[in-house]
Amino acid sequence: MRICFAGWGHSIHTRVYCEWFARRGHDCFLLTDHVGEIDGVRQVDIGQTDTNGSSWKRLMCGGINTRFLQDLGILLRARRFLKELRPNIIHLHTLIHPNELIALASMGLSIPFVVMPWNGDLLWVLDRSWWQRRMVPWLVKRSELGLYNSKELKQTLKDCGLIEEKLLSYLGVDISYFDPKNSYKSHVESMGISSERPIVLSTRSLGDFYRLDLIVKSIMLVKETVPKVLFIFCWHWGPTAKEEAFRKLLNEHGVGSSVLILGKQSQEVLQKLFRAAHIVVSMSEKDSMPRSILEAMASGTVPIVAQHPGVCELAKNEETALIVPQGDHIALAKATIRLLTDSVLRRRLSRNARKLVEDVADQDKNLSIIEKRYYEIVHGKEF
Fold this sequence. Notes:
It is a single chain. By secondary structure, the chain is α/β, with parallel strands linked by helices. It has 2 domains: 2-172 and 362-379, Rossmann fold (3-Layer(aba) Sandwich), CATH 3.40.50; 185-360, Glycogen Phosphorylase B (Rossmann fold), CATH 3.40.50.2000. The chain is built from 15 helices and 13 strands. The chain has helices at 12-23, 54-61, 68-85, 99-105, 121-128, 130-141, 151-159, 185-190, 212-225, 243-252, 267-276, 291-298, 329-341, 343-360, 363-379; strands at residues 2-6, 27-32, 42-45, 89-93, 113-116, 145-148, 167-169, 199-202, 230-235, 259-264, 279-282, 302-306, 322-324. Helix 3 (68-85) crosses helix 4 and helix 9 packs across helix 13 (329-341). The longest helix has 18 residues, at 68-85. 43% of the residues are buried.
């Protein structure tokens, strides 16, 4: 098949799916306004990449898009490339701007498209933007398939008008790559960190809605019981312009000596950090089922997460994770101390987490099912 992906080329989410289909022998290309490094996939820059993340800010501010002419240019360029390349199917990897413009550009070209919101992007856009509140449900209803990673997201797609027969789960991580059998103590030691030091890892970006401030507030409380604890903050994408403000926050709370900021890191480094860490933490305000939490669970690293319906489907309290109330840094500190000081509990949750991911979130198995559905959409018959 010739598959047109639409998404951010610098996102690991986009990279994983594009490369998987390319390795399967499909002719894949990506329409994007943020070009990245993706093996075997041609990338077509249809926008003017803004290093300040203007597309992201337009989404999160929820204001009416005043850059009408730029968006019109994106739509026209996308349509021109779609006419030239004639893909069999379009895969909208998230519903964040400008992907809705790419879907609009395909209208009248008889190219079926698939929508794949990940994490909370569909939930966010329906809350924040006048344009998105009207456009996204309209596009979802006209898609041939909606991919979801939680029951909450599935219901939201249904509320937008997509019927049950056009819905399919896309949970999945590479369980051979993220494997508890892999040991990376030497990698941690190469950074000057003792392998005996307990590590708490955060891999969410510096966006305000990820609430890294709650993790910072918990550090001093954790240090009172676990004085050698080290909190590592890193991410694979996001607004790095906020890093200076984040460092200032750490200094204000007097926890700089217990923190290591690695900043933007590759997937290869994150893989090693997941194995080196004792705990991974996420306190996001709104989420579905974050890929990073699945990667941690596959690696045998126990997550502590803020309570959200989507997250709690797999990150189950006292079974595969510890769940804390949203916005509660004291509960986060208590859960962190509990896991760091109770190795029996940590090992039990680690084993359960790995087994659950093996059972329901095997990337190769689940993407093969999606691939089969794509064939059926393109050829109009079952395979």
